[in-house]
Amino acid sequence: MNAAHTDTLLQVRAARRYGTLSPLRYPGGKASLAGFFADVIEALDLTDPTYVEPYAGGAGAGVALLVEGHVDRLVVNDFDPAVHSFWVAATEHCEALCALVADKPLTVEEWRRQKAVYRAADDTDPLALGFAFFYLNRTNRSGILNAGPIGGVNQTGNYKIDARFNRPELVRRLEAIGERAHRITVSNKDGRSIVQEHASDPNAFLYIDPPYLAAGGSLYLNAFTHRDHADLAATVRAYPHGNWVVTYDDAPYIRRLYEGEAVQSYALYYSAHRAVRSTELAVLSPSVSGVVATGHADAG
């Protein structure tokens, strides 16, 4: 590829903005990129576009794009068995999952029960494991799986365990996914294999958001080694004609891995006047870089 990295800040101000439509809370979640991706996908003029997240987690942007009608299909991949089980439950057992969300007690005692299910990691029962993951994701501090419950085990904090568990809203979000399950493909493969499966498809758009370098294992269920980051970069760079965006924390090591690509610092702006996210790093495929550079996607 011929694109060179630039230190010009890519200021993402998408023409369209959507509320939170994913039922999951995720550290560093990128749901706010959905409007920008919608602009890019429209500018690329893809036919019945497929949106692919090889490291999906909460798939915040992907769910928004599917629900709002900007993509025809959604591919949700996550190697972690608990995350994968949640997405299987949401797409194949949605009614049962919604019933659990509506009825399970929001108490420390129930939190302990669900934590035990999560730790057992029995993915032969995706409904049970997927709900346990979901329960901890919604009741733990910042949605982090190895954190304690909101408010602490003694529930003495300003916020209690139910602070992020709005049952009607979460059921609504889950039902929106269940209604579109026939357009969602769920898998738990290595993220690089998902890139290899879809990056050659001219009508696919890939958002590649791997575990960040600096965070390591503190935020992510599956931390990456330096070798994992290098292997992913080699895989992505093998598809110069694909439509993809990779996001990372801004680290010299990542810049070296993608040297020669369209690598830019970026910041998300929720309004015209206020930035509410720290600057990170985006690597754009030539096709995506082209529509951004020509102003067909609202950035800059």
From TrEMBL:
Keyword S-adenosyl-L-methionine annotated: yes
Entry keyword RNA-binding: no
Source domain of life: Bacteria
Biological process terms in GO annotation: methylation
Coiled coil stretches, renumbered: none
Catalytic activity: a 2'-deoxyadenosine in DNA + S-adenosyl-L-methionine = an N(6)-methyl-2'-deoxyadenosine in DNA + S-adenosyl-L-homocysteine + H(+)
Class of enzymatic activity (EC top level): transferase
Enzyme Commission number(s) from the entry: 2.1.1.72
GO molecular function terms listed in the Swiss-Prot or TrEMBL record: methyltransferase activity
Keyword tags: Methyltransferase, S-adenosyl-L-methionine, Transferase
Protein family (similarity comment): Belongs to the N(4)/N(6)-methyltransferase family.
Protein name, as recorded: site-specific DNA-methyltransferase (adenine-specific)
Species of the source: Tessaracoccus lacteus
